[in-house]
Amino acid sequence: MANPAAKLDPLAARIAGLSTPDGAGWANEVRGDALSRLSAMGLPRKRDEYWKYSDPTTLNQPEAPRAGLFVTDEAMPFSDVDRLKIVFVDGVFDADASDDLSLEGVEVERLSDALARDIHWARDLFGVLETRGQTPVERPLAALNTAFATDGVVIRATGKAAKPISLIYLHKSETSDAILHHLVKVEEGASVTVLENGPAAARFSKCMEVEVADGGQFHHVRAQGRDHERRASTHMFARLGAGSVYKSFTLTVNGVLTRNEQVVEITGDNAVAHIAGAALGDAASGAFHHDDTVFVTHDAVDCESRQVFKKVLRNGAEGVFQGKIIVKPHAQKTDGYQLSQALLLDEDSSFQAKPELEIYADDVQCSHGSTTGAIDEEALFYLRSRGVSHGEATDLLVLAFLAEAIDEIEDETLREDILTRLQGWLDRHRG
Amino acid sequence: MLEIKNLHVSLEEEDKQILKGVDLTVEAGKVHAIMGPNGSGKSTLSYVLSGRDGYVVTEGEATLNGEDLLEMEPEERAAAGVFLAFQYPVEIPGVGNMTFLRTAVNAQRKARGEEEMSAAEFLKVIREKAKDLKIDADMLKRPVNVGFSGGEKKRNEILQMAMLEPKMCILDETDSGLDVDAMKLVAEGVNALRDEGRGFLVITHYQRLLDHIKPDVVHIMANGRIVKTGGPELALEVEQNGYADILAEVA
User: Which end of chain A is more exposed for a tag (fewer CB within 10 A), N or C?
Assistant: First the structure.
């Protein structure tokens, strides 16, 4: 307040209230470097190429805009799944609500504990993938996250994790501003499933860096919802070794602003990356803006990547998809696929898509498609002529539209859980 | 059963009259056929009765057992007992045939205040009926009509009809796109459903289908009206002489 210059500098104002947690020397260096990156880049602006369709103002402002709490009797996602629960309340680890952090096949600990020691694999990961992800497109909010994240978990799979690790983000304060940073290392031939759910805070910044070594498998299923006024900026940075598998699915319902970025770099041959999402917004019950920004870089031969993103938008809801496949010169035999589709249930809703391919290799197969459409009236009449009500027929067609994205969830229990969420949302938002 | 009186229908988008005073009564237990040249309004009649958008009724009425059909939503007409076998059955990717049929059967039962069919009972019934129509398990699992041949689509329509057990069955050019064997199969399916309490309105260009589904009454439709009504022999007359003679005679 005393310094008028600070008022003029949005970045200084944004970070004035944040403090850098203390860790081991190396961790402090990483945070210092992240702050330098952030200072060099500045906060995202509406005029930036990848912020054209989403307004970063409320993510940049010093205080988190107030977000009312959402109260529901509905069971939380993944309630029926046998899992290791790790609970964060407004961005702070809650040991009492969490399970004991021990699990066969995997080491789990709190970020602050890991960063207080000198763990070589964590040194190779913390801030490293985020830094790599800053080219070719700057992601200042990710650098801010690395510099100021106060909590998070560190997961190292050394074998087959006995059950999924479930990160539960509870939102209990209307003004909470949470910054979480997670590290995941999947060692050679190991596998782990990470689940995430919950609104987390009034404003949530989350960064997850995932390194999958040769032959490792990382599965990720996320359910973002249902608070209407929550805001979130999330980043997943991944690097994939030879023969590894990375599969991520996100269901998003409600939310005034959600920006989900995924940056996946395939560095080993024969690796597979599938990134999918389904987002449903009904602006009649609160403004809805959802942005998926996905970059997949192929830097090895014989690799496969799929991006499947579907959005169902109603009553003025807004959807954005920005997806890019980059194929480096030697990444031959790449099989790349990108699909982004929106189903607009009325004329007030909108979808902006920016699908991009950047291919420098000559022996590749890459396809992309983006469509915006309405409910098929012929199909709707056909269903109704058989006695199915207008609402139920619309639901059937919406579920059919989303199927290709939902089918990306391999595990049947998790897929059923996500379908239950979806059906619940549809039941509550009948046209 | 079905009573249509002085029905006048225009297209919603353009000021074009398609039906210009149709009078028609189909009694329970009877099969009525409507024949007529292209553009005479046959398909429009089937769509108006089933409640498709895009048409405006400017005059007249249509009732099923005294209930005003024209006031009802398509799903209400279905629950009341109207079934349209489409000329071009719609492909619905992503919706399983079985899921669709079970949803439809139970939606109608619910609308009528009847108990829903259990999954096990439904499976038992549909397997039986599918077998009669030579519809295999794979076709039941696939998305509705997706990748079905013309004949498979028409058989699937008849399967839906058999499962829904409607009171008034309207078949819109069910013979189009069918070879002789497929037509026989479809006709057998229809004949199996012939019943004292059920009426049929069979719309066709050709007499061929009527060799297999024997009508009680044949109507000739032209220029938005029923211009001649007779017995099965009227269909044979059309087959031999075309429509020209009949139209000249009534003009």
Answer: N
Do the Cβ atoms of B107 and A384 come within 8 Å? no
Percent of chain B scoring above 70 in pLDDT: 100
Half-sphere exposure of residue A283, counting CA atoms within 13 Å on the CB side? 20
A172 CB neighbour count, 10 Å cutoff = 9
Which residue among A387, A393, A396 places its CB closest to the CB of B108? A387
B53 and chain A in contact, CB less than 8 A: yes
Strand segments, DSSP code E, in A187-334 are 191-197, 203-212, 217-224, 231-240, 245-253, 257-266, 272-282, 289-298, 304-314, 318-327
Question: Does A390 lie at the interface with B, CB-CB under 8 angstroms?
Answer: yes
Instruction: Tell me the pLDDT tens digit for each residue of B16-29.
Output: 999 999 999 999 99
B104 close to A (CB below 8 A): yes
What value of ipTM does the predicted structure carry? 0.96
Task: Compare B180 and A65 and report the one with higher pLDDT.
Answer: A65
Domains annotated for chain B, with CATH where assigned, are: 1-29+44-71 (no CATH), 74-168 (3.40.50.300)
What is the C-alpha to C-alpha distance for residues B218 and A211, in angstroms, rounded to an integer? 75
Which neighbouring-strand residues pair with B222? B225
Q: Which of A385, A399, A401 sits opposite B74 (nearest CB)?
A: A385
Q: For chain A, say whether B148 makes contact (Cβ under 8 Å).
A: no
Residue A6 has a pLDDT of: 44
Query: What are the pLDDT digits (tens) for A243-262?
Result: 999 999 999 999 999 999 99
**How many percent of chain A have pLDDT more than 90?**
93
Residue reference for tokens 């998790």: A414
Mutation target vs A (from B52, B103, B168; most A CBs, 10 A cutoff): B103
Per the rule left: phi > 0, alpha: psi between -120 and 50, beta: everything else, B207 is: alpha
Q: Considering CB atoms only, which of A376, A396, A404 is closest to B103?
A: A396
Angle at A84 between CA A82 and CA A85, to 5 degrees: 110
